[in-house]
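Quick one - inputs below.
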Amino acid sequence: MKAWKEGDYRLQQVISNTRLAPGAFLLKFRKQFDFSAGQIVALGVSTDIEPRFYSIASSEEDELISVLYTEKPDGKLTPMLSMLNPGNPILVSKPFGAFTSFKSEPVFVAAGTGVAPFISALLSNKVRGATLIHGAPYPEYFYFSDYLSEKLGRNYIQCCSRCMPGSHYVGRVTSYLLQWDELDPNRNYYLCGSTEMVVETRSLLISRGVPPDRINAEIYF
Ligand SMILES: Cc1cc2nc3c(=O)[nH]c(=O)nc-3n(C[C@H](O)[C@H](O)[C@H](O)COP(=O)(O)OP(=O)(O)OC[C@H]3O[C@@H](n4cnc5c(N)ncnc54)[C@H](O)[C@@H]3O)c2cc1C
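Output:
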C-alpha cells in the first residue's frame, strides 16, 4: 500500500494514546475488521503523507486494536501520532499481511516494537510452548513485560543492551543467541525488527545450524 486510496481506509477516532516510555506509545482505536495475529495496519493522520505500517499488538478477540510505536523525531508521521488525543481522527486501513502462521513451540526474537506481532499471537492464544527473546535499550522499553513474564515464565528473555548487570541479560539479542545453550535447530524461529537486526539474527541462526526454511521474518524498514 503506497498511497491512500478511497475505500482502502476508514476515518476512525483515537480511543487512547498512552506514553509507555520516553518516545514510546500505545495507540488504541476500535476494531472495524477481523484480523489474524501478526497482521499490520496502515495508519495516517491525513492523505498527504503516505501510509506507514504498524503491527497489531492486541488480541484477535479484543474490541480495540492496539499499536505500539516509537516516535522518530525527524520522521514525518510519528511526531504527529504522538500528539493525538482521544477523539482525534486517524486514518486506518483494513488489516493485511502474511506474518501469521506460527508453528508450535516457536522461538520469537524481537527488537523494540517488533515484539508487537508476538504479543498479539500470545494474547490470542495462537501458539503453545513459545520462547520470546526481546531486545531493548533500557528496562522501560520491555513493553507488556508483566503479562509476558506471567505467560512465559523463564521462556521470556529480556536482552537489555544498556542496562547495568542485574536482573536482565546485558547485551543484544544476537549476543544472547550466540551463546544460548538451549538453542534448538529443530524449532521454528520468527524474527521481527529493523532490517539490520533481522539480517544479523538470521545469519547467526544459520551459523548455529538452524535451517533457513525454519527462519521467518517481518522487517520494519
Ligand atoms: C511491516 C512493517 C511493520 C511495522 N510495524 C511497526 C510497529 O509496529 N511499530 C513501529 O513503531 N514501527 C513500525 N514500522 C515502521 C513504521 O512503518 C514507520 O516507518 C515508522 O513509524 C517511522 O515513521 P515516520 O513517518 O515517523 O518516519 P519516516 O518519515 O518514515 O522516517 C523514518 C526515518 O527515516 C529517515 N528518513 C526519512 N526519509 C529519508 C530519506 N529520504 N533519506 C534518509 N533518511 C530518511 C527519517 O529521518 C527517520 O529517521 C513498521 C514497518 C513495516 C514495514
